[in-house]
Amino acid sequence: MSTNLESYLESRLNQGKSTAANNVTIWSATCYITPLIGAFLADAYLGCYWTIATFAFIYISGMTLLTLSASVPGLRPGNCDGDTCHPSSRQTTVFFVALYMIALGTGGIEPCVLSFGANQFDENDEAETLKKSSFFNWFYFSANVGAFVAVIFISLIQMNIGWGWGFGVPTVAMVIAVMFFFSGSRYYRFQRPGGSPLTRIFQVIVAALRKMSIKVPEVKSLLFETADDVSNITCSRKLEHTDKLKFFDKAAVESQSDSIKDGEVNPWRLCSVTQVEELKSIMTLLPFWATGIVFATMYSQMNTMFVLQGNTMDQHMGKHFEFPSESLSLFALVSGLFWTPVYDQFIVPFARKFTRQERGFTLLQRMGIGHVISIFAMITAGVLEVVRLDYVKTHNVYDEEKIPMSIFWQIPQYLLVGCAEVFTSIGQFEFFYDQAPDAMRSLCLALSFTMNALANYLSTVLVTVVMKMTKKKGKPGWIPDNLNRGHLDYFFYLLAALSFLNFLVYLWISKRYKYKKAIARAQ
Questions:
Q1: How many whole angstroms separate alpha carbon 178 and alpha carbon 100?
Q2: Which end of the chain is more exposed for a tag (fewer CB within 10 A), N or C?
Q3: Phi, psi (degrees; rounded to nearest 5) at 522
Q4: Range of weakest confidence among 105-114, 129-138, 219-228, 464-473
Q5: Residue 276: which residues within 8 A CB-CB, separation 6 or more?
Q6: What is the pTM of this model?
Q7: Residue 269 phi, psi (nearest 5)
Q8: What is the mean predicted confidence (pLDDT) over 496-516?
Q9: Contact predicate 163/8, CB 8 Å
Q10: Given this model, what pLDDT does residue 498 score?
């Protein structure tokens, strides 16, 4: 959907480069924030299936309106002078309404499709548990295939046939995808929603605060838990008590002020161990979420600083064809498409012989490997920039827009970014799903999507701070408009250093993390 969106805003809605870039950034960030809405509704009230169905309708409606806004006279921007149009306020409004309908639809689809797919595997069956691990790999692989097709073919349609067709083809593809989804309805396994997860979280916090003066008993079996084999939370297994974040155990300590009548308790005064452990699980995931933001910041450079670096290099492929620097991200997709099946079919079985882990590596080890690879990706980009600047200095071509150095020297850094994503991003999806409380899985997956939105903001802050600190005493700064007079290599090395520090933090929290243990079957 986002392919060439900035070009459309510039050429058809007559927006300047900075305005168009800001609008694309805000819209992209919204697409990563709205999953919190869809995931909450799925976990609390609708379930994944009906959330997907509802938000898919919103998504298709938005895509249809977007197609109409680019093709139907009256809605299509008019008064065009060559490649630039002068749309009316109504035409601009219709376009942005459609765009944000798509963002809202995305919020209900992205986390729930992944969660719903993983829910099809029985966690009490060891064979199915292994298949579930492969599911996350192949889900990512199929998403990358879609992205690859979009970048290649949809981009060509938009630029050479027309924007109406460019938006219309993805709309039809989405309709077909939804039809396929509904066609398997009678074969799906459905998990009932467990009620508002936010309510349960606040109940634990309030109950614990009410009992601040109460001491937690040394014998943990004295803490309150339901007597049944199943949890009192719908479709959630009981969780084993842990010693982390002991303050919240106070919520499960029975006291005289707790009203227990006919087996019913006031959840704002007394919570079960499982409910307390739900909150603990969420809180222990947050440090990994924070390190994921830094990793996503490295990944976001592929669409920003890598592109700026490529714009200064020779983009010719042969005598007559120029390869756009923005399209070089294809190599990251290709890397992902290569490493995903290699990891699943070769690396995991090989590693299993040595680690004796069914997944080959633990989820934390897998993510850690990706963090390390991301460091080398930034170092590689920095080394290339050193070589590029050395050529500029040697040949005194500071004011040349492009230098005779092939853009394809950037391929290694893109390949490393794609490889890092296979290890860390897929690992994060599986980790957040696997370690989330059973009744909060969609919400935790949505939390992993928000890392990308916050990474965009962090990257913007980094660039702003760097330029403010380095643009002094007449110096152009590290990232000036003319990169030949700057030091983009320093910025890449700064990112590598931040990635290294982030990895050290990741190692520290990983060493202290204990995986979730369920002690009973779900209802």
A1: 20
A2: C
A3: -75, 165
A4: 219-228
A5: 204, 223, 248, 249, 251, 252
A6: 0.88
A7: -120, -30
A8: 94
A9: yes
A10: 95
